[in-house]
Amino acid sequence: MDLGIRGKRALVCASSKGLGRGCAEALAEAGVDLVMNARGADALEEAAQDLRDRYQVSIKTVAADIVSEDGRAQVLEEAGDVDILVTNAGGPPPGMWSDWGREDFIKALDANMLTPIALMTALMPKMIDKGWGRVVNITSVSVKAPVAVLGLSNSARTGLTGYVAGTARQVAPNGVVVNNLLPGLHATDRAVSLDQGAAKSGGISYEEAKAQREATIPVGRYGTPGEFGAMCAFLCSQHSGFIVGQNILLDGGASNMTM
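Above: the chain's sequence. Below: its structure in token form.
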């Protein structure tokens, strides 16, 4: 399918690996020029060069912490006037409710709620002026089905979801479409970290912990960054104009719900 976005320009955050990389690759394949951001300069440039070589698109890289004010300012200066924004940041660590204090919640809110809001606030006005724009926020299945050990993520990402619900409907008349993508278990470093934590707490091997979690997914496996990226690219396409303020779940059927 021709996504109709060849020649558009996108900022994709945390895109040197994992789900962000999957989104960047799918957009590059569709002919979108990119501004890629991540904290690690070497991994970021390696990922960008791979996409340049394979898809012949223009890619600029900004190695900076998108959560920090200085890092975000660097990214926004390089991004300038983009048509597409994909927000993404690593989730906070797992734990128990009794482990967390105020500062833990502030850090989670900064990374997974306030940073995406700041990026949208900075970049959507130019999209509105042009009468076209796409925003995809990578959040989590936890906003629909909270995960007990991810209370920090549950809280911060649900806050972002509420913000998007109202904002998406305010900017839609101007041709700017905002949606959220909710990943379940995907084959990324985050999954490895969570499986290692489950193995440690359960007194089992990493392989056993992973197998147990895969068994909870009807398709019997973790998702791939490529699958996730393809959905992201569709939401950034010309075909998504009637999809507004939605929370689209990609979890292999693991969450048994009707909504």
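The chain has a mean pLDDT of 95.
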